[in-house]
Design goal:
434 Repressor (Amino-terminal Domain), two-stranded antiparallel ribbon, 57% helix
Length: 94
């Protein structure tokens, strides 16, 4: 589980960087301390609601995709950094 959370956080941090937002600023916007966010990243443990709030601060949302035959699409989206998408955009097709 921790590796998956770390991957999601890394995607959020990459999106923040593209938007010119530091990790410390992202944490503050989401009501966290930079230290708390850093600890959560290293533990690989963060509430889904906190992940969603971090994403929202970047105008992104978390998206779930079904396993099975569509799993390759999810893997490709994660690798491409498109697993999270900008609010208002059409979610990735499955």
């Amino acid at each position: 589980m921790s590796v998956k959370v770390q991957k999601l956080l890394n995607q959020l941090f990459a999106a923040a960087k593209r938007q010119g937002v530091s990790q410390a600023e992202l944490a503050q916007r989401a009501g966290l301390t930079a230290v708390g966010l850093s600890k959560a990243k290293h533990r690989g443990d963060l509430r889904a609601s906190t992940l969603a709030e971090l994403a929202e601060q970047l105008d992104l949302e978390l998206v779930l995709v079904p396993r099975g035959r569509q799993s390759q699409a999810a893997i490709d989206a994660i690798k491409a950094g498109t697993f999270l998408h900008v609010s208002g955009d059409k979610p990735p097709s499955t």
